[in-house]
């Protein structure tokens, strides 16, 4: 719909689009929908979102392949859909893990938390998030159910390989979120013990 707006309205490359709020009003959708659509258009090379400066048309010809019918459905999923799916999956995995976890499983979770703390302390931009992943994986493994472990791994890969997630993640301040996640992880571990 936003792509059609760019193509059907005489926007030239380099021209600025209306603000998100106006686009949302014109199309009668929420700003969240507009943001996700703009991220997809940015990935496809149709627009450039410049922080504090606006949204600029890069190519209004429609020459980019925008037919996503053959694309992997997870590549087309928005970041909020991915987060919702992971929250549903991982909260149920954690609930089941609480019933199944052994001492060894708890040790793995603690080790993952320690790694996460070290990574956060290094505070290098783009520093590894392997502690985060290992913590969630340790919870999945604590279920002792190979299907749940595989579902977790697959959902993590979908997120990490999703173009919209990657684009959104590049606009976030990782350190703030990672501190919150670490606090959440400590609470989860305390609840599992």
Automatic annotation (TrEMBL):
Pfam families named among the record's database cross-references: FCD, GntR
Protein name, per record: GntR family transcriptional regulator
Higher taxonomy: Bacteria, Pseudomonadati, Pseudomonadota, Gammaproteobacteria, Enterobacterales
CDD domains for this protein: WHTH_GntR
Domain of life: Bacteria
DNA-binding found in the keyword field: yes
A GO MF term: DNA binding
Residue ranges that the Swiss-Prot or TrEMBL entry lists as coiled coil: none
Keywords annotated in UniProt: DNA-binding, Transcription, Transcription regulation
């Amino acid at each position: 719909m936003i792509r059609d707006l760019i193509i059907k309205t005489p926007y030239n490359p380099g021209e600025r689009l209306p603000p998100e709020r106006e686009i949302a009003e014109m199309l009668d959708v929420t700003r969240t929908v507009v943001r996700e659509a703009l991220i997809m258009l940015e990935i496809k090379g149709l627009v450039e979102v410049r922080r504090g400066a606006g949204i600029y048309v890069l190519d209004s010809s429609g020459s980019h392949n925008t037919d996503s019918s053959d694309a992997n459905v997870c590549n087309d999923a928005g970041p909020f859909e991915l987060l919702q799916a992971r929250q549903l999956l991982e909260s149920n995995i954690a609930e089941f893990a609480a019933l199944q976890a052994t001492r060894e499983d708890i040790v793995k979770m603690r080790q993952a938390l320690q790694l996460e703390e070290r990574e956060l302390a290094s505070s290098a931009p783009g520093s590894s998030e392997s502690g985060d992943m290992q913590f969630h994986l340790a919870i999945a493994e604590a279920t002792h159910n190979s299907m749940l472990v595989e579902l977790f791994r697959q959902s993590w890969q979908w997120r990490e390989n999703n173009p919209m997630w990657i684009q959104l993640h590049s606009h976030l301040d990782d350190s703030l979120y990672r501190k919150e996640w670490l606090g959440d992880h400590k609470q989860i571990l305390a609840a599992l013990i």
